[in-house]
Design a protein that fits this description.
Cation-dep_OMT, 248 residues, binds calcium ion, 18% strand, alpha/beta, Caffeoyl-CoA O-methyltransferase, 44% helix, 7 strands, O-methyltransferase activity, S-adenosyl-L-methionine, metal-binding, binds S-adenosylmethionine
């Protein structure tokens, strides 16, 4: 993995922000229309608070956009999800979207290597009255998943798993979460269009971190397309989200 220093990272993120819209929609105005017409008026007040708090954080581009949060909430309710997992929490926008959509006895196993980001959003999650649904575990997700699949009782028990962490591990995550999600349950992989770079020519002038992870995202997309254990649906929401329904 390419190691870059903090100043380089911040320069890259500033460059990324100049792209202006987080969505892959070709017009900012159209994206704004979706937000203002259908998303903001229905966004839970705690989600709004968390979104605004996160906007002040230097890594705010990592956050799930509100239209995608709305999609997650809708999906969770449609499948009557109760037992869920999230890999990659950051300040918790998708986590809070999930927690608000689950019934009061719903559960989210939330994995992230960084507790500090999670703790930034935690007071808002607590205020929303849904913190009791969350079991946050700090650490790299892969060994935590390995630990989970060691125990037979965990297999096939999750209704929904949202994967939004290090893209170079997505295939490793897939090979584990596929055992943990129940047949008929759903895994959602985030950022599967990777800023549109999945179709960029190999010599396109991409930001370093986009370039580095692009091949892993392409590899995941190709693997999911031929994986007979799941049905898939890739949506151009946010940075691209691929829904996988486990069928065997
Ligand atoms: N879902 C979040 C939201 O709605 O704001 C955004 C997640 S952000 C894109 C990716 C997160 O993955 C970061 O918080 C980072 O600390 C975490 N992460 C990166 N590598 C990880 C790993 N190996 N294991 C667990 N978490 C990891
Ligand atoms: Ca994401």
């Amino acid at each position: 993995m390419t190691i870059i220093n903090e100043e380089q990272q911040q320069n890259q993120m500033a460059g990324h922000k100049q792209l202006r819209h987080k969505s892959l929609l070709q017009s900012d105005a159209l994206y704004q229309y979706i937000l203002e017409t259908s998303v903001y008026p229905r966004e839970h007040e705690s989600l709004k608070e968390l979104r605004e708090l996160t906007e002040k954080h230097p890594w705010n581009l990592l956050a799930t956009p509100p239209d995608e949060g709305q999609l997650l909430g809708m999906l969770l309710k449609l499948i009557n999800a109760k037992n869920t997992m999230e890999i990659g929490v950051y300040t918790g926008y998708s986590l809070l979207s999930t927690a608000l959509a689950l019934p009061s006895d719903g559960k989210i196993l939330a994995l992230d290597i960084n507790r500090e980001y999670y703790e930034l959003g935690l007071p808002v999650i607590e205020k929303a009255g849904v913190a009791h649904k969350i079991d946050f575990r700090e650490g790299p997700a892969l060994p935590l998943l390995d630990q989970l699949i060691k125990e037979e009782k965990n297999k096939g028990t999750f209704d929904f798993i949202f994967v939004d962490a290090d893209k170079d591990n997505y295939l490793n995550y897939h090979n584990r979460v596929i055992e943990l999600v129940k047949v008929g349950g759903m895994i959602a992989y985030d950022n599967t269009l990777w800023n549109g770079s999945v179709v960029a020519p190999p010599d396109a002038p991409l930001l370093d971190y986009i370039k580095y992870y692009r091949d892993f995202v392409i590899e995941l997309n190709q693997a999911l397309a031929v994986d007979s254990r799941v049905e898939i649906c890739q949506l151009p929401v946010g940075d691209g989200i691929t829904l996988c329904r486990r069928i065997i």
